[in-house]
Amino acid sequence: MRAPAFWWQAPEAPGLKARLLAPASLLWRLGAALRKARACPERASVPLICIGNLTAGGAGKTPLVRALAARLAAAGHTPHILLRGHGGRLGRTAPHRVDPARDGFADVGDEALLHAAQTRTWVARDRLAGARAAARAGAELILMDDGLQNPAILPDLAILVVDAGQGFGNGRVMPAGPLREPVAEGLARIAPPNRGLAVLIGEPEARARLLAAWPALAAHEPIPARLAPLATGLPIAGLPVVAFAGIGRPEKFFDTLRALGAQLRRAEAFADHAAYAPAVLTRLQREARAAGAMLVTTEKDAVRLPPAFRREVLVLPVALETDRWDALDAAIAPLLASSPRDTTA
User: N or C terminus: fewer CB in 10 A for the chain?
Assistant: First the structure.
């Protein structure tokens, strides 16, 4: 499903649907409180960094995890990545080490395949069990993609990722809004005595608007970052394209193509993690041929395509960029210097 439009209305004017769903939001919060009360949170035996967000859908967690993993590996460290494996059948009963040569989208989900292409990656519905498996397999440090609200595991460092373009929407908790938990509770996860920081992804104007609207976030002095397209060797400028994307915010991808000078003949948004039926792919291919255009999509979408169809599509990868790697390095350095904990993890 795609996020409803009323989620992204201004907090001061949330609309009738958001107000009507307020009681359901209270039930959501009650369920979260009960899960937290029943949990006995533990730490892994190796440092664990949780990269999460407060809203449903994408905020830029996965590009940040990939960038951190590459940076750690380049410095001679051995990070492993841990995630639930949304949409995959493996990892539900026991942790599973992702093998990109054998596992497919239906096995482990799209994000796990992206991670596993460069870093040892695990999918596990029980994130604590997954952390234990990674530690036994030699992980020096674990990067957990999502799970900031998981009550079963205590991160050594929490990184809150915020998309400056969408912010916190109408400021309400699901289903009345996009939030997984109230903003104040989410920010408390990165405030003392907890160890954490925030990363704000977007262009300078969008970051400035969001910080002005949410002074509580501004007080945490989030690290500015942006997602930038990587060079593919193909001339995007002037290229006629039919673009499609099933990610958290497909509009960001379409805007990137426009900024690169691509001529969008058509842009079609699908639900996040969408599984593309053969009939849909055939239609997209027919529309592209009729328009004399090239099909183009995201890396995350590409791993959900059949191999034969993937060869017909131009894939535009993006990477996270920031001028403040020093702040991230300084937050992570103490974890790498610490000795492994004497636990059963």
Answer: N
Selection from 225, 135, 148 nearest residue 194 by Cα: 148
Q: Does the pLDDT at position 160 exceed 70?
A: yes
**331, burial (CB in 10 Å: exposed 0-12, middle 13-18, buried 19+):** middle
- Distance between CA atoms of residues 119 and 83, nearest Å: 13
H/E stretch holding 24: helix 22-38
Residue 226: strand, helix, or coil: strand
User: How far apart are alpha carbons 178 and 300 in whole angstroms?
Assistant: 22
Q: Give the pLDDT confidence of 252-292 residue by residue, as tens digits.
A: 999 999 999 999 999 999 999 999 999 999 999 999 999 99
Place of tokens 């001529």: 263
Mean pLDDT of 101-108: 95
What amino acid is encoded at 318 in this protein? V
Q: Which amino acid is at 56?
A: A
Q: How far is CA 233 from the centre of its chain?
A: 26
95 close to 133: Cβ distance less than 8 angstroms: yes
Give the up-direction half-sphere exposure of residue 52: CA atoms within 13 A in the CB hemisphere.
Answer: 25
pTM comes to 0.94
**81: closest CA among 56, 94, 63?**
63
Question: What gap in Å lies between CA 201 and CA 210, rounded to an integer?
Answer: 11
Which residues, including other chains, have CB under 8 Å from residue 28's CB and lie 6 or more apart?
173, 174, 175
CA distance 195 to 191: 7
In whole angstroms, give the CA distance from residue 343 to residue 329.
26
Cβ–Cβ < 8 Å for 111, 84: no
Q: How confident is the model at residue 345 (pLDDT cuts 50, 70, 90)?
A: very low
- CA pair distance 88, 92, nearest whole angstrom: 9
Report residue 242 as tokens.
């039919």
